[in-house]
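Problem 12. The chain below contains 73 residues. Write out its predicted structure in token notation.
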Amino acid sequence: MANRGPASAADALGRAVYDYLREDAEAGALTYRDGAGVRDGRVRDFYFSPPDEWPTGIREALERLASDERACG
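Solution.
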């Protein structure tokens, strides 16, 4: 049996990232569900695009989190 990365179906994100890194984009699909809302999990967009391509709001939020962490550490 081939190694398929994360074994648990509960780790859908881990499996999607693993498949994406193996360049198996179809297998790396991830569906995001929030109640009745369903959309593409956008593994490539959220996890593999360079930070300078991220929306400004996301970069600012991450900078605030990093700053807070440094202040606490």
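Discussion. Residues 12-72 form one domain. Students who got a different answer should revisit the alignment rule from Section 12.3.
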